[in-house]
Structures are given as structure tokens and as C-alpha cells.
Design the sequence.
């Protein structure tokens, strides 16, 4: 019997605008100021350094690693705060969470915990648990093993948990491989199917009526 609903964060509960601004504007601007470069040159340099590390290493997700690597003198919390007004919840999120409040609600995200705490600050009261694959499990992707660990930490069987997210591999295929139910969130409307939803309102309706 389904008891727990797990949500991805970026692209599911909140837009990616905040994250993109921190990494693609905030970091380069600090680098430009620190090293006397114009913004375009600094951005090219910063992105080049990101690519050298790559998303298969935990450092990719670690703000403090990049602040140290670039010799930046701002606290990471202050950089996050600069862009916090740009955090955008999708419009149906709170309505969907209210509709699903009879379930245990959790977040399972690939984002580092410092991002989760800022981005979901206004929503934290809805969630019983929040999991970061990179911060909590030291895994660079939400693999099937991450979902199994989430279930274990929750004291739940995989069949009791349904995950919703917008990445087909990490939010749909991986939880299914771990034995969970899953819904693929396709906000762009490119896909169709019985386990594809266009927004979280549709997801809530499907869950409550299945």
C-alpha cells in the first residue's frame, strides 16, 4: 500500500532559475571581481573549470570546493542569499502538497543540502524528511541505490513509496529499478503515457484516484 510520496526538487517543486543564477552568474561575477576580469571572460573561465571537474565527481555539487578553488572571499551562504529572491515555486505546488497531505511527504534531490535548505525554506513544514543524494549519501546521481537507501532510512518497503520528478532516468527509471512506483513529470508536454504528468496537480489527481 502506498504511504509515502517523494518529490524531486529542481524542475519539480521549484524552477531551475535560482540554481542557474548562482552557478552561471554569481560565481563568475565573484571571479571577475576577485581576479580583475570582465564578466564574459570570467564566465568562460569558470565554466571551463566546471567542465574539467565534470558532473561525475562530488566536487561538481560542492559550493565550498568552488569558492576555495576560485579563491573567492564571500561566504557561500551570502552568495545563495543574494539570489534567494529569484527562487520560483511552480504555481500548483502548494495546492498539490495540500491534496497529498494524507501521505508522508519527502524530498529526494540530487542538489546539495545548502541549496535544498534555501530553495525549500517556505515549504519545509510540508515534508517529513529531506534527502540529498550528494550531501547525505555521497552519490553524484540519484541511482537506484539512493532510492533503496531512502526507503531504508524511512523504514519503508519500496512498494510503499512513489517518486515524482522531471528527469526521466534519475526520477523515473532509477526509482522503478529500486522497486518504487514513479511518475515522470514532463512540464514541456513532450511525452505521453499512463505514468507521465504535466504538473503536480495532475500528479496528485492521479495518485488520489488510483
Sequence:
Amino acid at each position: 500500500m502506498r504511504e509515502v510520496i517523494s518529490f524531486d526538487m529542481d524542475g519539480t517543486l521549484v524552477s531551475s532559475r535560482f540554481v542557474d543564477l548562482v552557478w552561471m552568474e554569481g560565481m563568475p561575477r565573484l571571479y571577475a571581481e576577485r581576479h580583475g576580469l570582465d564578466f564574459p571572460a570570467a564566465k568562460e573561465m569558470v565554466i571551463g573549470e566546471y567542465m574539467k571537474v565534470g558532473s561525475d565527481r562530488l566536487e561538481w555539487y560542492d559550493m565550498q570546493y568552488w569558492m576555495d578553488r576560485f579563491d573567492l572571499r564571500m561566504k557561500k551562504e551570502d552568495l545563495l542569499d543574494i539570489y534567494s529572491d529569484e527562487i520560483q515555486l511552480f504555481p500548483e505546488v502548494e495546492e498539490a502538497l495540500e491534496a497529498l497531505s494524507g501521505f508522508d511527504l519527502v524530498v529526494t534531490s540530487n542538489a546539495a543540502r545548502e541549496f535544498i535548505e534555501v530553495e525549500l525554506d517556505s515549504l519545509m513544514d510540508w515534508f517529513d524528511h529531506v534527502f540529498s543524494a550528494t550531501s547525505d549519501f555521497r552519490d553524484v546521481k540519484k541511482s537506484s541505490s539512493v532510492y533503496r537507501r531512502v526507503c531504508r532510512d524511512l523504514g519503508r518497503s519500496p512498494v510503499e513509496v512513489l517518486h515524482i520528478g522531471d528527469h526521466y532516468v534519475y526520477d523515473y527509471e532509477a526509482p522503478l529499478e529500486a522497486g518504487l512506483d514513479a511518475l515522470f513529470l514532463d512540464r514541456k508536454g513532450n511525452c505521453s503515457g499512463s505514468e507521465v504528468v504535466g504538473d503536480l496537480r495532475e500528479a496528485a489527481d492521479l495518485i488520489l484516484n488510483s
